[in-house]
């Protein structure tokens, strides 16, 4: 049986049913996946049924997938003053976190060698409120969600590129958000290499400094996944523009060095690059990922 030394994966579609995300990860030979439980630009308030959860875990149990990151919908903005939009954002996270918690419990019950990493979400952008009040609103929202869904599963704040009024560009700002939460043990982070590069963190020329800064401000132990994306824009551009691995400003050497950094190698790396839009380019992108990581993976020669 193939033994994994790193956790490498891609964002996969859940179209036709969340259980299909497992097969979509399997067909590309990765050991980790990121999934969405619903349409990314549609509010969700209805809990995932126990039947669908059972079908999902059945598929997982028969797979090679070891790490699963759940990504919340893109509409969520916990910095909103508008009560309805704020509540809808919270409820979307409740639905996703409830799913994560129930699946995690079933994994433990069946003794499956897999892990749900948590629910990743974009913290939001400053609109109606001041900066300080926006941060306070995000913290309040996270506290509310965690109190609604009891358990161990985590909310994972994703770093942003700092475009416009988007919050969460710096590690310091991410740390402030976590610091205000009551159940800190249930809050972690997903660091996006493209977002942080565009936000001013130079992964190419100052890799050690970026990792040290990350550890100092948020604790590497709290980073539960890394979105591994190359950048179509320069360092410090504040533009959210992903590029395929080795085709952007971070480049093959930069990506390879990130993958090889000893303090990062145990963290799952998940691709969100443009190549994932179709099967043939996804195969090429996954091949590149494993090449740059110098890793082996499950045979995928029968992919169609």
How would you describe the overall organization of this protein?
With 304 residues, the chain is α/β, with parallel strands linked by helices. The protein has one domain (10-293): TIM Barrel. It contains nine helices and ten strands. The strands form two sheets. Strands 1-2-3-4-5-6-7-10 form an eight-stranded parallel barrel. Strands 8-9 form a two-stranded antiparallel ribbon. Strand 1 (8-11), helix 1 and strand 2 form a beta-alpha-beta unit. The chain starts with 7 loop residues before the first strand and ends in an 11-residue tail after the last helix. 48% of the residues are buried. The model has no long low-confidence stretch (mean pLDDT 95).
Strand content: 5-15%
- Helix proportion: 25-40%
What is the name of the CATH superfamily?
Answer: Divalent-metal-dependent TIM barrel enzymes
Strand count, sense and barrel status of the largest sheet are:
8 strands, parallel, barrel
Number of strands: 10
What is the first-to-last residue Cα distance? Answer: 24 Å
**Low-pLDDT ranges:** none
Average of the residue pLDDT scores: 95
| CATH-scheme architecture | Alpha-Beta Barrel
How many separate domains? 1
What topology, given as strand order, has the largest sheet?
A: 1-2-3-4-5-6-7-10
Number of helices: 9
Structural class of the helix and strand makeup?
A: alpha/beta
Instruction: Please tell me what the overall shape is.
Output: globular
In the CATH hierarchy, the third-tier topology is known as TIM Barrel
User: What is the chain-wise order of helices and strands?
Assistant: EHEHEHEHEHEHHEEEHEH
Radius of gyration: 18 Å
Oligomer: single chain
CATH class: Alpha Beta
């Amino acid at each position: 049986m193939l033994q994994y030394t790193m956790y490498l994966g891609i964002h996969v579609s859940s179209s036709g049913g969340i259980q299909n995300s497992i097969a979509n990860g399997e067909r590309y030979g990765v050991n980790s996946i990121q999934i969405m439980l619903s349409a990314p630009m549609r509010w969700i308030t209805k809990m995932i049924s126990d039947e669908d959860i059972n079908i999902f875990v059945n598929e997982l149990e028969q797979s090679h997938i070891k790490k699963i990151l759940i990504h919340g919908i893109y509409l969520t903005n916990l910095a909103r003053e508008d009560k309805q939009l704020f509540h809808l954002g919270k409820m979307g996270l409740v639905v996703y976190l409830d799913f994560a918690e129930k699946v995690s419990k079933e994994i433990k019950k069946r003794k499956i060698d897999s892990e749900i990493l948590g629910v990743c979400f974009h913290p939001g952008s400053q609109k109606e409120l001041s900066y300080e009040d926006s941060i306070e609103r995000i913290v309040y929202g996270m506290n509310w969600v965690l109190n609604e869904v009891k358990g161990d599963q985590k909310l994972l704040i994703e770093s942003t590129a700092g475009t416009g009024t988007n919050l969460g560009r710096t590690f310091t700002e991410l740390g402030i958000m976590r610091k205000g939460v009551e159940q800190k043990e249930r809050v972690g982070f997903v660091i996006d290499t493209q977002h942080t590069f565009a936000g001013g963190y130079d992964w190419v020329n100052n890799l050690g400094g970026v990792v040290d800064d990350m550890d100092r401000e948020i604790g590497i132990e709290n980073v539960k996944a890394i979105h591994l994306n190359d950048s179509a824009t320069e360092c410090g551009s504040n533009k959210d523009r992903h590029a395929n691995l080795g085709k952007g400003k971070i480049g093959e050497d930069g990506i390879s060095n990130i993958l090889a950094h000893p303090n990062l190698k145990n963290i799952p790396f998940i691709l969100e690059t443009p190549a994932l839009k179709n099967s043939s380019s996804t195969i090429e992108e996954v091949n590149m990922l494993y090449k740059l990581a110098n890793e082996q993976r499950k045979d995928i020669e029968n992919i169609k």
